């Protein structure tokens, strides 16, 4: 089914390009594969600059990860360590591609969280979950187990640029997750989330790979 969606989405993109001749629009300033070559020291600097450390993490993951969306152009739009992606149409569907360094035998958990959602004061946790896939062998995320189906960021008006973070954890093994599954159409149950509490619950340790972008409300 997911593969089917992917084909449909590729097909539509190709059609869209053909029909409307969408001009080359890409916010990226780094080539696709370069993101995975990010120096760990620079990665840490970016995480501190955008205050992912300390707002979300205490220390920097060593590795970058890659996440890019189809955008109707030829190269896609990707998260590049704090870049702005302000086109909700691009991020409305889940990224077409995720990648990180792996021996391909390990199982991973991937979470995408919003860390500036500012939920009501009484909630325990400050994050909003946008996408959670577990038991991903290597980086074959389409074959992983979707706990929380993807929802594109929907930044509230007048809140400025909000941060959205992708986190990848190494699992000790293939695991049984007991979580409420959240469909892509459901916006409830997504706030009051903590990636750390989730990771602690399943002994995932600290995230091994990361990337993030920022988005603001657009009409
Ligand atoms: C993991 O799989 C990818 C894609 O098939 C491949 O490019 C990569 O070299 C593999 N990594 C290892 C360590 O085998
Ligand atoms: C937030 O989540 C925690 C942990 O699951 C739970 O104890 C708490 O009751 C939740 N708070 C609200 C307001 O939902």
TrEMBL record:
Pfam family, one: PBP
UniProt KW Acetylation keyword: no
Annotated TM spans: none
Alphabetized UniProt keyword annotations: Signal
InterPro entries noted in UniProt: PEBP (IPR008914), PEBP-like_sf (IPR036610), PEBP_euk (IPR035810)
Signal peptide: 1-19
Name under which the protein is recorded: Uncharacterized protein
């Amino acid at each position: 089914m997911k593969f089917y969606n992917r084909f449909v989405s590729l097909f539509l993109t190709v059609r869209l390009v053909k029909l409307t001749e969408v001009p080359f629009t890409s916010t990226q300033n780094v080539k696709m594969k370069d993101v995975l070559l990010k120096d760990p020291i620079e990665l840490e600097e970016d995480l501190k600059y955008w205050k992912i450390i300390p707002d979300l993490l205490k220390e920097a993951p060593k590795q970058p990860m890659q996440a890019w969306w189809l955008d109707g152009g030829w190269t896609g739009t990707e998260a590049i360590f704090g870049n702005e992606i302000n086109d909700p149409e691009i991020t409305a569907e889940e990224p077409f591609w995720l990648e990180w360094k792996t021996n391909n035998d390990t199982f991973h958990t991937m979470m995408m969280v919003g860390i500036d959602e500012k939920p009501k004061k009484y909630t325990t946790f400050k994050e909003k979950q946008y996408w959670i896939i577990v038991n991903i062998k290597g980086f074959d995320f389409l074959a992983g187990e979707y706990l929380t189906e993807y929802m594109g960021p929907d930044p509230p008006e007048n809140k400025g640029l909000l941060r959205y973070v992708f986190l990848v954890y190494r699992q000790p093994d293939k695991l049984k997750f007991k979580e409420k599954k959240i469909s892509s159409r459901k916006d409830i149950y997504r706030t009051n989330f903590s990636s750390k509490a989730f990771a602690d619950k399943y002994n995932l340790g600290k995230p091994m790979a990361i990337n993030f972008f920022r988005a603001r409300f657009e009409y």
